Amino acid sequence: MLAYDKTKLENEALVSEAKALYKMKFISKEQLAQTATQLPLLQSNGNILVRIGFFLLGCFLFSSVMGSFMLLFAPLLENYSETLLYFYAIIGLVGTELLAAKNYHKHGLDDAFILSMQVAFYGAIGVSFEATLPVFIAMIAVGLVCCVRYMHTLSALISCIGWVGLLFDLITKQHLMDTLFLPFVGFLLAIGIYVIYNKLNSNAKNYLYSNALWVLKAFSLVLGYFSVNYMVVRELSQSLMGIVVEEGGDIPLALLFYGLTFLIPLLYIAYSIYAKDRMMLLVGLLTLGYSFFTIRYYHQFLPLEIILILGGILLFVIAFGAMKILKHKETGVTFKPDRSSDSTLLLNAQALIMATQSDVKPVTPENKMPFGGGGFSGGGAGENF
């Protein structure tokens, strides 16, 4: 099923781990260079800017092929627009396979052809069926195939978006169930995606798909929060169910969504500290901030400046308590420096702050060798005869 040589993919993973070890000062630069030069590798770009440049070049190449084909054959296929889109998808597929055969992976050119192929295919499905439901089904299937075959991380995200769109379409347009259950269905979908992530991540054979699994996990956490976020539920209730929230009124089950808006981020933060999960901690902090914004958007209890002052005091108390608790802790969440992070900038900043705070005066050296007058080893004439 894989389009690439598995040995070279494993070598790529090995070199990536070697770079991480070099960053943490476990191996030397010579050992890293020796590892990278002795192993056969795929053609990839570690520099994100270079990769974006090749991605734009690949998009330009794909559009040039499409333009040339339209210039030659568009008059013959004037009434078959979906046929052109299918043909463009085939061009993207052929280009993707050729690039995979040439060992282009995470290069930029392969990203352009993979995504262009999918966009053309989804457009062809939409034009052929004139409905969104087949498009979402195609996103689920094609995104999953591209993720597995080409190890393309964004394709995993496309497949997840397809699942959300499919359930949304089934409930809102196909009336599979009442629209009132849409937030709970989205939350159950997030739980299902997270369970799938845990199942796949526990299998050591799937280490090559670590980036795709990371996307799967992040998507499930974000979807789980926004599915029951009060702002999202209220706006969807007004637009889909026609609920008019008058002054002093609220949406159905408002207290439940108020509670979940704050409870889920707090659960993310608590579990992330217990499990030492940095990404979940970051998502928890960001969603907690958005929860305060949600309540502030609809209910303004205090002036903004008072809210900021109280928030600053709360953050100071939390930070001070965390420093006291974690000051002498050696394992888990600690104040010890992380070897995987580059602390050069932090050290330079500390040195600069110390230099600006200290009162340094220039030291004038004391001259213990007075010249003239013969005061040092008879050098020079004295004032007395």
From TrEMBL:
Record carries keyword Cytoplasm: no
Alphabetical UniProt keywords: Membrane, Transmembrane, Transmembrane helix
Residue spans crossing the bilayer: 48-72, 84-101, 121-143, 150-168, 180-200, 212-233, 253-274, 281-298, 304-326
Leader peptide range in chain numbering: none
Keyword Membrane: yes
Stated name of the protein: DUF4401 domain-containing protein
Organism: Flavobacterium limnosediminis JC2902
